[in-house]
Amino acid sequence: MVQDPSTSPNIAALYSSHHRWLIGWLRGKLGNAFDAADLAHDTFVRLLGKREPQDLREPRAYLVTIAGGLVASHWRRRALEEAWLETLAARPQELVPSTEERLSILQTLEEIAGLLDGLPAQVREVFLLSQLDGLTYPQIAVQLGLSVNVVQKAMTRAVAQCYRALYPSPGPSAGARV
Q1: Beta strand spans in the chain (E)
Q2: Which structural domains are found in the chain, ordered by start?
Q3: What is 120-131 written as a DSSP string?
Q4: Which whole number is the average pLDDT over 1-15?
């Protein structure tokens, strides 16, 4: 549940003390003021959705941690959009999906990227070659110069990550009766 900003004096103080600095830091990472302002806003929105921070010793480090995750998501989204646009440009005009279909496909790609976030690059690559390109484990092994056993383990890890992201385990008290 999102907190009412008027009941969050710590966040209000954090905002007034560090918002301008955060925009500058983000502008350095992103290269433009508009995206920096958007992600600074998103950083504080995330803070409002969290429990009230207690006496932060390093408020800027805390903000950088949150904003850094948003920057990574921003660049991942940008890379997905560019790859998708390149794919569309290579298709004959009659095979290009409608605007609505393109948006849906891009959102699905973002969800997949989010599910695989945090996995090593090789595990992600194995998963994508299997699921998007339809390659078999032996084909993936040859293409990446791996053993089939390593490909199987990578797939197990990727599928487990997707499962955990889609079906997070309940907290320890979720099954307790009152």
Answers
A1: none
A2: 1-106 (no CATH), 118-170 (1.10.10.10)
A3: -HHHHHHHHHHH
A4: 63
